[in-house]
Design brief:
There is one protein chain. The protein is mainly α and 385 residues long. Helix content is 81%, strand content 0%. The chain is built from 17 helices and no strands.
C-alpha cells in the first residue's frame, strides 16, 4: 500500500468501527438504555442522518481549505463526538450524540476519495479508492468483532472509547504522512452544486441510496438474526462479525480490481445482481446455521464490492465538482444505511421474524439494479463518460 494512503485508511478504520460495531451491540445498548431493539435501531439511523447532513455542508464550507487541514479537523470532530456517545445516559442523548458523530463521516470519505484519486497512478484510480475504504473493511474484520466482544463482556461504551483512540491516532498519521496538496477548485458553494443539475448524477445517487439500502436491511439486524433464527450463541456474535468483515476485505479489493478491468457499469450491475440473490438466500436459509454463516461471508463480500464502481461512476459524472459529488455519495451511502435500518425494521414491528428484513432488502436491491440498467442504457456513451 502507498504509505500516503495509510492515514486515510486509518480514518476509515475508526469510522467503520463506530458505524458497524453498534449493530453487533444493539441488544446490549437496548437493554442498557431501556428500549426495544427496533428503537435501538434508530441509533443507526441517527448516525446515518448525521452523515447525510454533514457531508455536503462540511465539504461546502471547507472546500477552499487544503485537504490535509480539512481531514485533520474532521477527525478532531469525529473523536470528540464519539467520546460523547460513550457517556450517553439515555435514548434521547444517544440519538443526539450519534447524529453528531455522523457529521464528519461523509466529508472525511468525500475528501479522502478525491485525495486518493489525485495520488493514484493513471488507470488505477478505482484501486486507490478501494484502499481508502480498506480501513472500513478491516474495521469489520478486526475492530468490530473486538469491540463487540469487549462490549458484550464489559460495557458497550468501551466501543466508542476505542473509536476515539483510533481518531487520535489518525490525526497524528495525517499530520505525519499525508502530503500537502493545493486547493484544486476554489469555486463557490453554489457552483460546486451544479453537478446536481445533471440527471446522471441523480441516477448514481439513487443507485447508491436504494441499492445499498438492501444491504443494510440485513446488516442492521445481523445480531438477532444469528442468535434467534440461526440459533448461534450470543457469545459467538463477535466471530460472526469477523466472518462478515473478512468478506468485506475481499469484496473491497475485488471491487476495485474488477472495476478497473471490466468497467463501472458491468461491475455495478454484476454486484447488485449478486447482492439481490444473496439476500434472497438469507430469507430462505438463515435458519440453517452453517448456511447462514456462508451467506454472512458472501454478503460481506458483496457489501463492499459495489463501493468502488459507483464512486468512480460519480467522479466521472461530475468532473468539475469532485469533492462535493464524493461527499454527496457518502450522504447517499448513509441514506441507504438509514433507510435499510428503518425499512428493514418495519416487518419486526409487525411481529415477523428476523429473516424478513432481508426480503425488504431484495426489493431495494432490485430497484437499485433497475436504475443502474437504465443509467447504463442512457449514459454509457464515450462522449458522456
Amino acid at each position: 500500500m502507498d504509505k500516503r494512503i495509510i492515514p486515510l485508511a486509518m480514518g476509515g478504520l475508526g469510522i467503520g468501527t463506530t458505524e458497524f460495531a453498534i449493530m453487533g451491540l444493539l441488544p446490549d445498548i437496548a437493554q442498557s438504555l431501556h428500549v426495544d431493539i427496533p428503537q435501538a435501531g434508530h441509533f443507526i439511523s441517527a448516525y446515518a442522518l448525521g452523515v447525510v447532513i454533514g457531508a455536503p455542508l462540511i465539504v461546502g464550507f471547507s472546500i477552499k481549505f487544503p485537504p490535509k487541514k480539512v481531514l485533520i479537523w474532521l477527525m478532531v470532530l469525529f473523536t470528540f463526538f464519539n467520546l460523547l456517545s460513550a457517556v450517553a445516559p439515555n435514548y434521547t442523548i444517544m440519538i443526539i450524540t450519534r447524529l453528531l458523530s455522523g457529521l464528519p463521516h461523509g466529508a472525511f470519505f468525500g475528501v479522502s476519495t478525491v485525495v486518493a484519486k489525485r495520488l493514484a497512478v493513471p488507470g488505477k484510480e478505482a484501486r486507490y479508492i478501494s484502499l481508502v475504504f480498506a480501513g472500513l473493511t478491516l474495521a469489520n474484520l478486526a475492530m468490530v468483532p473486538l469491540v463487540t466482544y469487549i462490549g458484550h463482556t464489559f460495557h458497550w461504551s468501551w466501543c466508542f472509547v476505542m473509536v476515539s483512540a483510533i481518531g487520535l491516532l489518525t490525526i497524528f498519521m495525517i499530520s505525519l504522512w499525508l502530503p500537502d496538496m493545493e486547493v484544486k477548485n476554489r469555486s463557490s458553494y453554489l457552483t460546486q452544486l451544479n453537478f446536481l443539475k445533471k440527471s446522471q448524477s441523480w441516477y448514481v445517487l439513487l443507485i447508491t441510496a436504494i441499492g445499498f439500502g438492501g444491504l443494510f436491511t440485513w446488516l442492521s439486524y445481523i445480531s438477532p438474526l444469528m442468535t434467534e433464527v440461526a440459533r448461534i450463541d450470543n457469545s459467538s456474535v463477535a466471530y460472526v462479525m469477523i466472518l462478515a468483515g473478512g468478506g468485506m476485505v475481499i469484496g473491497n479489493l475485488l471491487g476495485g480490481y474488477l472495476t478497473d478491468k471490466i468497467g463501472v457499469f458491468k461491475a455495478s450491475m454484476l454486484f447488485l445482481s449478486l447482492m439481490m440473490m444473496a439476500l434472497l438466500c438469507v430469507f430462505f436459509f438463515s435458519a440453517h446455521a452453517p448456511t447462514s454463516l456462508v451467506l454472512t461471508f458472501l454478503c460481506g463480500i458483496l457489501s463492499m464490492a459495489l463501493g468502488a464502481p459507483v464512486n468512480i461512476m460519480m467522479l466521472k459524472a461530475a468532473p468539475d465538482s469532485e469533492m462535493m459529488s464524493a461527499a454527496f455519495m457518502q450522504a447517499a451511502f448513509n441514506t441507504a444505511n438509514a433507510s435499510g435500518a428503518y425499512f428493514g425494521g418495519l416487518p419486526l414491528t409487525f411481529g415477523l421474524s428476523y429473516q424478513y428484513p432481508s426480503l425488504v432488502g431484495v426489493a431495494m436491491t432490485l430497484t437499485g439494479l433497475l436504475i443502474c440498467v437504465r443509467y447504463t442504457y442512457k449514459f454509457n456513451r464515450p462522449q458522456t463518460i
